[in-house]
Design goal:
Helix content: 25-40%
Number of strands: 10
Shape: globular
Radius of gyration: 20 Å
Largest sheet: 8 strands, mixed
CATH superfamily of the largest domain: Alpha/Beta hydrolase fold, catalytic domain
CATH topology of the largest domain: Rossmann fold
Strand content: 15-25%
Order of helices and strands: EEEHEEEHEHEHHHHHHHEHEH
Oligomer: single chain
Number of domains: 2
CATH class of the largest domain: Alpha Beta
Strand order of the largest sheet: 1-2-4-3-7-8-9-10
């Protein structure tokens, strides 16, 4: 729902991209993917624009951000307002559909959920940039919220300066000890009791419907993370939990495969810090009452980056993890200005 119906409006185009990187995933998800692309109003085809890529949170897909939204702007409407008022320079924005049958992914390569890092970099970017004459070296940014914020952070740490030149994370996963660990895994085990402690039985029941409860979705989220961070090619959908299924004791070698992807752990490694130094902008924020405890990991990440002398912008705001799209009013102008 637009705030200003009189201002100029951009166009949203839909591409279908053959994601060869996604072929053969254990979930059987399609490799052909929809990518919506926002082009700002009055775009001069002779002037190349920066490209931003929107990574959505768990349970969502890129096209959800381009759809009509009640009592609020979708992202193209937000861009129209910010660009139209001069708050940010014009950019092209891609919204890839990265949904999986486990409810989403973390935007990294996984045998189970698919090579999503490869899809974004090797399949999607060349197709979008060729079609819309945008982006290119030094002019690509990535942003997202929650799982998408995690994706933005990890991509910045792995490909800062080579693929991405700016990144913004809203309430992104950081500090896995506070975010997951014992309490979340115990909750999954309790939920599996009604499914004979079988991950396959739970997933089959979830897919059969007709209605999923919040606890079902929460369990599915942890299973999706397991398939992402520590896939088992011999397990159903590649899912194995990093705990003993009877006692909920952490299995150290399994948990280590999770924590190596924690942005806090990654920020201790020289190659990741070097990638962050090459960014034109690194922005991240978190609500100070985030119900998933992400604020504590965010604070520790901020402290780590400050100690390492990594230029970044970190902000906290008084809110929780939910419905914080309004924070894009801060990040989008910063990204666009850094890349312009």
């Amino acid at each position: 729902m637009r705030k200003n119906f009189d201002g100029p409006t951009g166009d949203v185009h839909t591409l279908w991209i053959e994601g060869t990187s996604l072929s053969g995933n254990l979930l059987g998800d399609p490799a052909r993917r929809r990518v919506d692309v926002y082009v700002p109003p009055g775009r001069d085809d002779n002037v190349p624009l920066p490209l931003l890529v929107d990574l959505v949170g768990y349970t969502s897909g890129g096209p959800a951000h381009t759809s009509w939204k009640n009592y609020g702007e979708n992202v193209p409407e937000r861009l129209d307002r910010l660009i139209g008022t001069g708050a940010m320079p014009p950019v092209v924005v891609a919204f890839p559909d990265c949904f999986t049958r486990l409810g989403g992914n973390q935007y990294i390569d996984s045998l189970a959920t698919g090579a999503w890092e490869g899809f974004l970099i090797n399949d999607m970017l060349p197709a979008v940039e060729a079609r819309f004459a945008c982006g290119g070296d030094g002019r690509r940014g990535v942003f997202g919220k929650s799982s998408g914020g995690f994706g933005a952070l990890v991509h910045a740490m792995r490909h800062g300066g080579s693929v991405w030149s700016a990144a913004a994370s809203h309430s992104g996963d950081a500090g896995f000890d506070c975010l997951y660990h014992l309490g979340e895994f115990a909750g999954v085990l309790r939920h599996l009791v009604d499914h004979d402690m079988s991950v396959e039985a739970f997933c089959r029941a979830f897919e059969a419907g007709p209605k999923a409860k919040d606890t079902d979705w929460h369990t599915m989220m942890i299973l999706a993370q397991a398939a992402t961070f520590d896939p088992d090619p011999d397990a159903f959908y590649g899912i194995r939990l990093p705990v003993d299924m009877r006692t909920c004791e952490i299995i150290p070698e399994r948990w280590a495969n999770w924590t190596k992807w924690d942005p806090l752990r990654m920020a201790d490694e020289a190659q990741h810090l070097a990638a962050l130094r090459r960014l034109k902008l690194l922005y991240f924020d978190c609500g100070d009452i985030d119900q998933f405890n992400m604020v504590y990991g965010s604070r520790r990440l901020h402290d780590t980056l400050e100690s390492a002398g990594i230029a970044h912008v970190y902000e906290e705001f008084h809110d929780n993890h939910s419905s914080v799209d309004y924070r894009m009013d801060v990040s989008l102008p910063l990204l666009a200005k850094a890349l312009s």
